[in-house]
Design a protein that fits this description.
The protein has 18 helices and 6 strands. With 445 residues, it is mainly alpha-helical. It folds into 3 domains: 106 residues, Fumarase/aspartase (N-terminal domain) (Fumarase C, Chain B, domain 1, Orthogonal Bundle), CATH 1.10.275; 249 residues, Fumarase/aspartase (Central domain) (Fumarase C, Chain A, domain 2); 56 residues, no CATH class. The longest helix has 37 residues.
Length: 445
Amino acid sequence: MTSHGPETERAVSNFGQGSTPREVIRAYALVKEAALRAVQEVDERFSLEDFSVLMEVLAEVREGRHDALFVLDLAQGGAGTSLNMNLNEVIAQLAGLRCSRALHPLEDINRYQSTNDTFSTAVTIVAYEGLTAVEKRVVALQEVLVGLEQKYSQVLTTGRTEYQDALPMTVGQLFGAWAGPLERDRWRLSKLKERVRSIALGGTAVGTGFGAPVAYVFAAERHLRRLSGLPLSRSQNLGDEIAHLDKYSELAGGYRLVAENLVKITDDLLYLTSSAVGEIRHPNLQAGSSMMAAKTNPVLLEFVQGLAIEVQGEAYKVSLWVQSGRLQLNAFLPFILGAILKIAADLNKALDAFRRLLPLLEVREVRMRTNLGSSAALANSLVPLLGYDRVKKVLALWEASPPQNWEEAAQILQEQLALKPDELQNLLDTQSLTSYLQPQPKEKP
């Protein structure tokens, strides 16, 4: 079979020839199979032999053996009607070649269905599976960050606010702080599954179920849950499910928050890996310049950040399309699906790349210790123990002759504060510098 049905040809004339994403073909074929199984269960419309052929054809479509016959991009008018027609015509023609009778794309393959309930349901499947894939990657990234938090729990560095040295902290605390937003992303995405999983199957054109037997509706839902393996649930308000697509704005919003957090974390790392700071080193993964041989660029950090910014733009487009639904239908559902697919794909690439990068980052402990030793942040950390005025005196000397490293800083503190070696060691202990104030024993009168 090399030609397309007449409705598909009209759609190509209107919107141009393209290709339907594999995920969409597979999901829509699942919906069609569930619907046709329900039709057969209720009506016994097909002979056993013809029904068996139909199931074979649908399996072939699901597996991708006929993808070349799906020639429409998701950028189209009509709320997905052309995609439904393309699928109906492909199934009818392929099965008709092997069946005992010709099959009609609408009377047979689209029986008891509308584009508005079936395409919507296929979109739900694609969105739910995409959400599951993104969630898994967020979890994996969070786990890497938590592992690095533990690995570097005793390595000191400089905490900074507004790009200024503030107080000491551990590199582990730095990674642990980055893990926090990913933990929230993980929770948000998990909760979104409940919202996304509702389907419109059985609502037909405007959510009233007009033209579909009740037995068919329940059977179609049951078959689809079994075939997809997903916890899909028929909406209790089918008219709402078809007309209002705010669940996709919510989904895109959840994705956008992941992207925002990736931008924040990669921004931090771009600063820390810069030549000026150099406390973390980005691996040399490729030539940094066609002219400067010794240059290393933070290419993966830039890649992750670029994708994350793209995700935010796509999420905004979803919001605009969602609000543009009219009355009982949102004609922009194919565009929304295209954006949701792109968002998920971009996030998956960004999350995978970032997860691969993190273990390759070189934490330069000596550079961190040197920077902290020459920073007023070290003196700031002593205020609770020594008092503001005593530390201020040390700072005056510090500024007049700044220490160049940790050892010089320790020597200044010991001399100016008349500290014993064990007192100095306790004062500069990692726990003392980066945690809660420990109660000091009171001197006896």
